[in-house]
Amino acid sequence: MSHKTLLRTGPLLPGGISPYGPLGLPGPDGLALPPGFTGRVVARSGEKVAGLTWHAAPDGGACFPDGDGWIYVSNSELPLLGGASALRFRPDGSIGDAYRILSGTDLNCAGGATPWNTWLSCELGHRGRVFECDPYGARAARPRLAMGRFKHEAAACDPERGVIYMTEDEPDGCFYRFRPSDWGDLTEGTLEVLCESGRWEQVPSPAALLKEARHQVDHARHFDGGDACHYAGGVCYFTTKGDTGLWAYDAQTSTLDRLCAGVRAITAAPSGDLYVARERPEIDVIAPDRAVTPFLRLEGHDGAELTGLAFSPDGRRLYFSARRGRTEGQTFEVTGPFRS
To answer: What is the DSSP secondary structure assignment for residue 215, as one 8-state letter?
Structure first.
C-alpha cells in the first residue's frame, strides 16, 4: 500500500468543510457519521464473538490481508492478563473466526504491524517487552528483547530505512528506533535514541536492569509520555499523552515538528489522509493539504478513549475501539466511500 504524505512545512488548518460532508445524527450505537457511511459494533468486552470472549481494555490494533478477507488484531491493556486477540473477516464483511494470538503478558497497550504481516504487541509495564505475534494464529508469539526493556507504547515500521520507531510512556520518555541486523528478523539489532541534536545514538544496554534505556545516553531528547505511532510516506507520526501533542518526524530530512495538540491515536488511509482520535470521543481527518475536519463523533460514550485505529487492507473500512477504564470496551467498524 503506497501512501501520499502530508506537506512537511506549514501549520495545520482546523475548521472548514469536511471532504465527506457534515456529520449526521448518531445511530443506535452512538456513531455520528458523514453521508454514505455506516457503522457497527463488531465486538464487546466480556461478550462472545465467534466463540471467543472479547477482551477488556481494547487498545492498539492493526489489519492484515487474509486471502479475499482480512484480520483485525487488538491488544488488551490489562495487567498480567493482557495479550492480543484477532477477528477474521470473510470477504462479505461477516466475522468467520475470533481467537487469541498472545496471552499471559502485561498491559499490552499499542504496537504496530510489520511489512511481513506480523503484529508487534508492546507491553506498557515496567521493563515491558515487545512481542512479535502471528495475526493468523499459526505460530506462537515471541519476545524481541533486543528492542529494549522499557514502558513500550507503540511501534511503526519504516521499510525504506529498515528501522522500527518506538515510543515510551514515561514523563521523560524517549523516541527510539530499532535497526534489525536483518530486515524481517527482529531477534538481533541495534537500539538507538533520538537526541537533542537531531542525531540518533546507540543505547548501550537496551535490557539493562539498573539503568533505564532513556537515561543511558547523554542529551537524549525526552517527551511527555510517548503514545501512538504511525509511519506513512516518509514521516513517522507520534503522539505524547502528557501534552496531547501530535509530532511528525521526517525521516528523509531528519527533522521533527510538533503539528498540533489534542490528539491521542493516529492512523493513515491509502489516500494520504491522517485519521486522528481526539481526547474526546471524536475522530478528525487531516488531509494532505493540512486541512483538519471532523470525521465521526461517538455520542453517549463520555470519558471514552478511542484506540486501535486501523484501515482494512483495501482502505474501505476503519476499525477502532472505545474503552473506559479496564473493563468496558467496544470495537467498531465504519464502512463507506473513503477517499482513495
So the answer is: G
Separation in Å, CA 236 to CA 6, 164, 257: 11, 10, 11
Please give the Cα distance from 140 to 249 (Å, whole number). Answer: 33
The confidence score (pLDDT) of residue 15 equals: 82
| The one-letter amino acid at 301 | H
- Nearest in space to 229 (alpha carbons), one of 108, 85, 111, 62: 111
- In this predicted structure, the answer to whether residue 325 has a pLDDT above a threshold of 90 is no
* Confidence (pTM): 0.96
Residue 246: how many other CB atoms lie within 10 Å: 23
Q: Are 67 and 60 in contact (CB under 8 A)?
A: no
How confident is the model at residue 1, as a pLDDT?
40
**293: enclosing H helix or E strand:** strand 291-298
Q: How many helices (H) and strands (E) does the chain have?
A: 0, 29
Give pLDDT tens digits for 30-39: 999 999 999 9
Is the pLDDT at 4 greater than 80, yes or no?
no
Report CA torsion sign: 77, 78, 80, 85: negative
Report DSSP letters for 248-275, one per residue: EEETTTTEEEEEEESEEEEEE-TTS-EE
Closest C-alpha to 29, from 330, 285, 307, 310: 330
